[in-house]
# Entry
Amino acid sequence: MFLIGVPLLLIPFVIYNAIAFSMSDFAWTQPLPPIHMVSGGEWEMTPGDILIVFSILILFFELVKATRIGMRTIIVHMLSAVLFAVSLVEFLLVKQAATATFFTLLIINFVDMLAGFTISIRTAQRNIEFDSADKITS
# Structure
């Protein structure tokens, strides 16, 4: 699978940039038409909310991918670190990225990067412990 070799959080990053740079007057906080709930309330979401929810769902799959062991996983973690660095630089230097939506995407990228490295290190430690136990008993 090709998608296993790239950070999936690149997708919301590209979506945000495509919209932000192609539609200069786009408002991430503009409410979409409300959904009428059974309770009588109205549920309003914004495009930014939808992108954040989508990113959190992708973060789950990134965390599941982080449990794999192998060279491709290390490369994906490095690419996640690069994506976080690019996102941070864009947030600090680009006017279109100075929104709460982009900042939340930045934090999601940071969590992905930290969690990926942490999970990989813990998984590698367990793998070393099992390998050491096998050698002792063999």
